[in-house]
Amino acid sequence: MSTSRNRNTSRGINLSRIITLAFVLTTVYPILFVLLTSLKSTDEFYTNVWSYPHHFQWNNYSKALFDAHIGVYFTTSLIIVGISVICILILGALAGYALARLHVPYRNLILFLLLSTTFLPSETVIMPLYIMMSRMKLVGTYLSLIIPYIGWALPITIVIIQRFFVSLPNELIESARMDGCTETQTFRKVMAPLMLPALATCAIFSFVSLWGELLWASIALSMSKVRTIPFGILNFQSQFQTDWGPMAAAIALILIPLMIFFLFTQKYFVQGLTGGAVKG
């Protein structure tokens, strides 16, 4: 019986390893494909899509940065997404703490409504959002992206942070109140230092989803010279041909901030995902 059980356990472990390896390969290979394509000429790309670059075309990156103005679009995206993520984290932390630790009427209903907004397809809000931004005369400006980005990412951020605060022991708040701390002081001195894992999780989710957003950016900025990186990549496409080498280089430049950001926050990201699993 014990031998059979060990065999089943070993098979389960091997199966999970195979599934994990397959998932890693399907995730990593597109990144490698983009990096290799970014070092090819367009003619070489059309000759053999899957081949290794015979002559590294490093000038593809200079074309992407300077000729196609990806450097300018990179700065624009960094400003828009950076401001959006900071506002999302601040507002999400305050709202999450209030819904977790303060006596807010209809708290569960509020959380349900917040979650329900995440199931709405983005296409359903494009038209009313554009009309609202147009009447506010914000179309084509940074705010035409920052305000919607905050609204789209804030609900799930509030829910994640709220669940994190619920998982913390009540004794922390009670001891702070016994020491004479106000709610603001309790949040700032006691709760804020503990919420770094939850903030990192929300920051990664928000940054990744907003950094590559194209649909709303292409609509809000269609009549403006302002361009984000995903929208700016369309410059490589013409009616008859796509310059694949510089375009892949531009896509690689999009991936670099995401990978760097995740490398610095991965430890807190894992802690944030598991922080609300067990109530302390």
TrEMBL record:
GO cellular component, one term: plasma membrane
Assigned protein family: Belongs to the binding-protein-dependent transport system permease family.
Domain of life: Bacteria
Name the UniProt record assigns to this protein: Carbohydrate ABC transporter permease
Keywords: Cell membrane, Membrane, Transmembrane, Transmembrane helix, Transport
Regions that span the bilayer: 21-39, 70-97, 109-133, 139-161, 198-224, 244-264
Domain ABC transmembrane type-1: 74-265
UniProt membrane topology term: Multi-pass membrane protein
Predominant place of localization: membrane
Biological source species: Cohnella endophytica
KW Transmembrane (keyword) present: yes
A biological process from GO: transmembrane transport
Cell compartments where the protein resides: Cell membrane
Gene3D superfamilies (UniProt xref): MetI-like
Keyword match Cell membrane: yes
